[in-house]
């Protein structure tokens, strides 16, 4: 593979593009569908929705997930809500408006056609979820309730208290279990995909490690669907679940799938900061807190007084000062950057000067403690449980944390990667979010991919293969499986053989530090180059000094972590390269060299209005391909929040 | 912040389902009281690995109380002493310097042991498989607002839908009953119009499956409610018994 495949973008008017594409896709008879096997990796929103929908159509589906139950996939943690252009609030929302917000929010680094389709499908997602019994919030009259979220002027976010992801996932999980009961889905839990099987460049199956017995198992199929989630854990501390990782997509990348925009990683401004060296997790505090909480820091650098002893005149409400019209509600990337700059300048508070205050004092004084408590009670409780401090009495301390990855495997309009027969859905692909994901749009994308897009496009691909194509049981496929199995075996043996002194987590923490420092909220050419050298050096130490206790043929959590971390090393280096090559500031990617005199991001549409898609070459530097982006309905404009 | 704390951890160690298990004692000296209990186990594991010993197996993932992965008994209490809290959200500042904590896996016939603090809870998935869903295919749904649900009713359905499938209710029940888990799912769906067509059949099928999986029956001890991290009320169990009578009355 040496060039970018056709992204298969629709031509003609965007408003009817998906309908026209779908109507033109070939179909397969129900009888033949029963003979076709599909492997889905991942049981989050994207994977569960796809597996259930494909099984309903009659395919034989196998679903692989490393969790003990599909219900535990990381989608369960999403708090805020899911967008849809239903205009139930009668505030003028429309598909065009959701499309425009999505494209603008992504700083014009996403494909127009994809964003349009996402907005168009959004309404059907809500219908589907309600029919499954998802208990969204309702108005007294029984209709669905909506709320407002960052980055839009209409109320289009559907929610189930602070547990929207949980309820959406349970809906998809229940649809999936219904198909398991019907015998159409084989559920393979506690399996981790370690390799992709390809034959003549076409995806034919996956190799998994059974996490209980350690056996390597191969599952062959007519098509493979990866829905394995995001890779924010490359930073070690993040808002993601601890086991979220990049292995499935990274292994596919090494087999030939292009990796797009790896450096686009969203940093969320309002998370509980890190404290002790052994802290394992950064917990998100919903963005909605900034509706009433005011962000500030001491005016004087190094001021160590407790917050209640710092008088008003000696406080800097920096977001209100710098962005008078948006104030504390500026988008995630801007709020994160400003906090980090001041902390770097010595104004930060808390452990290591790495946090800012989010203060509810004024809101409590003007609205009363009862109102504030009912509005944010559960979040306050969560904060207090983790930090031991009551936010009603003292300001919260928050700091930006790695949260979501906009990059992922490159896919065309049909969600097929550059490996034919390999489809990639949800956070694992790079699609729709551009350089900066808007709130409440990832859930929407995962479900659009899983319920509606993949079932149509996977069918089309299978139909195009015809009845004479090589089947999953062909001897040549078996041979390819054997080879892939040997690759996995070799990696496991190599890790166990190192027999060094340092546990995996200590390497992971070190990698996270490097990535935060060099490829975090602010990047620079010198920093990225230093990062590349440091990560390569750390990887070499990992290969020399890792200690994985226990064996391959038993439950071995340390071996699982070591396999994941070895993949993160490769990905981290690709992220640094991608960030270095993108000589502009856009969305979550802020290059120090490319900023205005006022410190705002300067995008370069002339040279960088493209998707960067990286090709892996064994033993050589990867190649950066460019897929140009063009816009017809909406022209790129500069984001301005002042 | 809260300073340093030293603890003795007595942990159930069992290499495999077949091998015998026993408690082993470990000391954590002067660690930050701001660590969560699971972070303390991470720390202990790093020490064990460095000393060439097998680390302690335990389940976890989100570490924010929502995925339902974590869970074991702390001094005999499922998820430990803090009400409405999963074990991943239990922080060391809840304990006193010098305390001994006994950590043991969930115990129930339907939850076979795997390793150390890890047990197999797939029986809970099979309960859902027996009927814990609305039979609706993708793409067949009417407009969402065509189905009206009163605000309070939706909120009540939500309360029961928040069960995270952690299994604490089973582990704390002297009969190892899954009644709270099943009642929560039945109540979630039966409180919504979408759940009505299959209401009776679902109640029947899920309760029958409970028996097949080896879960015991409910004898109203209410321990399940006391340990449920999502505070699901045991009143739903009595309601569930009513559902069964209702199903029988309607001929299944
Ligand atoms: C704290 C938090 C709050 C959020 N809130 C919101 C919100 O309010 N609104 C919104 O739109 N988005 C939100 N997001 C983002 C959103 O939740 C995710 O982007 C989305 O749920 C990802 O879904 P997914 O199906 O792609 O992947 P996941 O849900 O991450 O699922 C990945 C699946 O793949 C499996 N898997 C991974 N690798 C392998 C492997 N090698 N082998 C086998 N199985 C594997 C895992 O077991 C899992 O089942 C939030 C994210 C976080 C972290
Ligand atoms: S009912 Fe409560 S204790 Fe039982 S599985 Fe659900 S959340 Fe856990
Ligand atoms: S680790 Fe997810 S609930 Fe505890």
Question: Describe it for me?
Answer:
The complex is a heterodimer of chains A (642) and B (252). With 642 residues, chain A is an alpha+beta fold. Chain A has 17 helices and 19 strands. Chain A has helices at 17-24, 30-33, 45-57, 95-105, 112-132, 164-181, 247-254, 318-322, 332-344, 361-367, 369-387, 442-465, 475-498, 504-519, 525-545, 557-581, 605-608; strands spanning 37-41, 60-64, 82-83, 157-158, 185-188, 191-199, 202-210, 216-220, 223-226, 259-260, 265-271, 294-298, 315-316, 356-359, 396-405, 408-409, 422-424, 610-617, 620-628. Chain A has a five-stranded parallel β-sheet. Chain A has a five-stranded antiparallel β-sheet with strand order 11-15-14-12-13. The longest helix of chain A has 25 residues, at 557-581. In chain A, 59% of the residues are buried. The mean pLDDT of chain A is 95. Chain B is of the alpha+beta class and 252 residues long. Helix content of chain B is 33%, strand content 14%. Chain B has helices at residues 37-50, 122-129, 151-161, 168-172, 179-190, 199-212, 223-227, 235-249, and strands spanning 4-13, 22-32, 73-74, 77-78, 100-104, 113-115, 118-119. In chain B, a hairpin with a 2-residue loop joins strand 6 and strand 7 (118-119). Chains A and B meet through helix 3, helix 5, helix 6, helix 11 and helix 12 of A and helix 1, helix 2 and helix 3 of B. The structure holds flavin-adenine dinucleotide, iron/sulfur cluster (SF4) and FE2/S2 (inorganic) cluster. Iron/sulfur cluster binds next to helix 4 and helix 5 of chain B.
């Amino acid at each position: 593979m040496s060039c970018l495949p056709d992204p298969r973008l629709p031509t003609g008017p965007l408003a009817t593009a998906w309908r026209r594409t779908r109507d033109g896709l070939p179909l397969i008879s129900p009888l033949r569908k029963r003979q076709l096997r599909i492997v889905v990796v991942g049981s989050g929103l994207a994977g569960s929705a796809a597996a259930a929908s494909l099984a309903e159509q009659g395919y034989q589906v196998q679903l692989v997930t490393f969790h003990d139950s599909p219900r535990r996939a990381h989608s369960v943690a999403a708090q805020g809500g899911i967008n849809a252009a239903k205009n139930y609030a009668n505030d003028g929302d429309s598909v065009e408006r959701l499309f425009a917000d999505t494209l603008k929010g992504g700083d014009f680094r996403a494909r127009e056609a994809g964003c349009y389709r996402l907005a168009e499908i959004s309404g059907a997602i809500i219908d589907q979820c309600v029919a499954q019994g998802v208990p969204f919030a309702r108005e007294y009259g029984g209709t669905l309730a909506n709320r407002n979220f960052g980055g839009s002027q209409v109320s289009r976010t559907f929610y189930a208290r602070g547990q929207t992801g949980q309820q959406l996932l349970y809906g998809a999980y229940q649809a999936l279990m219904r198909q398991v009961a019907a015998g159409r889905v084989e559920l393979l839990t506690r399996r981790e995909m370690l390799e992709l099987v390809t034959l003549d460049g076409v995806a034919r199956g996956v190799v998994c490690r059974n996490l209980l017995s350690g056996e390597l198992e191969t599952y062959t199929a007519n098509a493979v669907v990866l829905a394995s989630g995001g890779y924010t854990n490359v930073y070690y501390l993040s808002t993601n679940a601890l086991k979220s990782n990049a292995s499935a997509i990274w292994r596919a990348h090494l087999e030939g799938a292009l990796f797009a925009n790896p450096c686009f990683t969203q940093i969320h401004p309002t998370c509980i900061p890190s404290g002790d060296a052994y802290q394992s997790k950064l917990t998100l505090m919903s963005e909605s807190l900034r509706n009433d909480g005011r962000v500030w820091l001491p005016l004087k650098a190094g001021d160590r007084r407790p917050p209640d002893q710092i008088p008003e005149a000696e406080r800097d409400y920096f977001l209100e000062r710098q962005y008078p019209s948006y104030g504390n509600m500026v988008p995630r990337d801007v709020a994160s950057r400003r906090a980090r700059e001041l902390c770097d300048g010595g104004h930060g508070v808390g452990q290591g000067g790495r946090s800012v205050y989010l203060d509810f004092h004024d809101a409590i004084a003007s609205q009363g403690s009862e109102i504030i408590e009912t509005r944010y009670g559960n979040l306050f409780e969560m904060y207090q449980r983790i930090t031991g401090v009551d936010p009603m009495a003292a300001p919260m301390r928050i700091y930006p944390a790695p949260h979501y990855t906009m990059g992922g495997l490159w896919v065309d309009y049909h969600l097929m990667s550059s490996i034919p027969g390999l489809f990639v859905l949800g956070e694992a692909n790079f699609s729709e979010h551009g350089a900066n994901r808007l709130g409440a749009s990832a859930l929407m994308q995962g479900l659009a991919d899983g319920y509606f897009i993949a079932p149509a496009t996977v069918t089309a691909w299978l139909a195009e293969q015809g009845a004479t194509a090589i089947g999953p049981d062909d001897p040549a496929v078996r041979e390819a499986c054997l080879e892939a199995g040997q690759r996995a075996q070799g990696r496991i043996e190599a890790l166990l053989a190192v027999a060094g002194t340092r546990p995996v987590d200590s390497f992971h923490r070190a990698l996270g530090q490097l990535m935060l420092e060099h490829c975090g909220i602010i990047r620079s050419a010198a920093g990225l180059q230093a990062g590349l050298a440091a990560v390569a050096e750390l990887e070499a130490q990992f290969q020399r000094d890792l200690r994985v206790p226990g064996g391959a043929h038993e439950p071995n959590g340390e071996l699982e972590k070591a396999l994941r971390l070895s993949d993160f090393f490769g990905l981290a280096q690709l992220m640094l390269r991608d960030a270095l090559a993108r000589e502009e500031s856009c969305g979550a990617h802020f290059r120090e060299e490319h900023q205005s005199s006022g410190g705002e991001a300067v995008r370069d549409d002339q040279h960088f209005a493209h998707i960067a898609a990286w090709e892996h070459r064994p033993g050589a530097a990867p190649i950066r391909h460019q897929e140009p982006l063009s816009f017809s309905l909406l022209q790129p404009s500069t984001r301005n929040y002042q | 912040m809260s300073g340093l704390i030293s603890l003795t951890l007595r942990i159930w160690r069992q290499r495999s389902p077949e091998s015998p298990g026993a408690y082993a004692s470990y000391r954590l000296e002067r660690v930050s009281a701001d660590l969560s209990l699971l972070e303390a186990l991470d720390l202990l594991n790093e020490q064990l690995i460095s000393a060439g010993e097998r680390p302690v197996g335990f389940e976890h993932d989100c570490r924010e109380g929502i995925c339902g992965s974590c869970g074991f008994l702390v001094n005999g209490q499922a998820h430990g002493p803090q009400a409405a809290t999963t074990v991943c959200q239990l922080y060391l500042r809840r304990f006193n310097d010098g305390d001994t904590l006994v950590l043991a896996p969930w115990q129930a016939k339907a939850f076979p042991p795997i390793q150390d603090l890890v047990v197999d809870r797939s029986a809970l998935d099979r309960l859902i498989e027996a009927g814990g869903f609305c039979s609706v295919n993708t793409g067949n749904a009417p407009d969402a607002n065509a189905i009206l649900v009163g605000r309070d009713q939706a909120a009540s359905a939500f309360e029961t839908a928040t069960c995270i499938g952690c299994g604490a209710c089973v582990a704390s029940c002297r009969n190892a009953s899954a009644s709270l888990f099943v009642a929560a799912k039945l109540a979630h769906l039966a409180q919504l119009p979408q759940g009505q067509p299959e209401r009776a059949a679902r109640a029947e099928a899920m309760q029958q499956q409970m028996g097949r999986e080896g879960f015991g029956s409910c004898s109203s001890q209410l321990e399940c409610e006391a340990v449920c991290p999502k505070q699901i009320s045991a009143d739903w169990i009595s309601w569930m018994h009513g559902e069964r009578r209702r199903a029988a009355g309607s001929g299944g």
